[in-house]
Prior knowledge:
Elements: E1 3-8, E2 10-13, E3 18-25, E4 32-39, E5 46-51, E6 57-59, E7 68-73, E8 78-83, E9 92-100, E10 108-109, E11 113-118
Amino acid sequence: QVQLVESGGGLVQAGESTRISCEASTPTFSVYLIGWFRQVPGKEREFLADISWNGDSRYAKDSVKGRFTISRNNGLNAVHLQMNDLRPEDTARYYCAARVLGRTEYEYWGQGIQVTVSA
């Protein structure tokens, strides 16, 4: 069992930056690929980025690529999402999730954290 806890977020103004973090409670953090997702009420959850133990990362949406950066600290069991040049349309609840590398389904999810971008 892996527990994921997101932190950071809150209210920011358009054009500003913020960083959200995900901490995992597991002694085998390195075997998990960690992803960030977001969801707006009434819409499907969307994948943003993920990162493996060695730092290999990928980004799903053109709208966040170049503005969002995922990073990982295996020593602290943490993954961060640096979000720059935020826009009102980035307002959403952000979730981190974990899956064992090689599997397709994310097995563990955090509770999510709200990021609200004001115009």
